[in-house]
Amino acid sequence: MDVSGEVMTVTGKVAAREIGFVLPHEHVLVDFIGADKICPGGYDQDEVVKVVEPYLIQAKELGCDTLVECTPDYLG
Questions:
Q1: CA gap 53, 57 in Å, rounded
Q2: Alpha-carbon gap, residue 69 to 43, rounded angstroms
Q3: How far is Cα 76 from Cα 70, in angstroms, rounded to an integer?
Q4: C-alpha distance from residue 55 to each of 10, 35, 50, 58 (Å)
Q5: Which H, E and C letters describe the chain, residue by residue?
Q6: Tens of pLDDT along 52-70?
Q7: What's the gap between Cα 17 and its chain centre?
């Protein structure tokens, strides 16, 4: 497999050979309230981090190097 390319991440380009084990389609926060009801401040960001972060840390400890967050704006 050719891993000589680059992958664009939220922090910039990363060499493909450096991304390691990937979870390719994840939804860290999903809210099915509906696109027409989404509003800024609809949830407490600090509370979300408090709840979700332990799972992300565990994924890292289990060998996940890269997570692709696929949630569209209208779901989370």
A1: 6
A2: 18
A3: 10
A4: 20, 27, 10, 5
A5: CCCCCEEEECCEEEEHHHCCCEEEEECCCCCCCCHHHCCCCCCCHHHHHHHHHHHHHHHHHCCCCEEEECCCHHHC
A6: 999 999 999 999 999 999 9
A7: 20
Question: Whole-model pTM above 0.85?
Answer: no
Find tokens 């939804």 and name the residue. Answer: 27
| Backbone phi and psi for residue 22, each to the nearest 5 degrees, phi listed first | -120, 135
Question: Do 75 and 30 form a contact (C-beta atoms < 8 A)?
Answer: yes
Output the six-digit token pair for 75: 């779901």
At 38, list the tokens.
Answer: 């989404």
List own/partner pairs for 60-64 with CB under 8 A and 24 or more apart.
63/20, 63/21, 64/21, 64/22, 64/23
Amino acid at 14: V
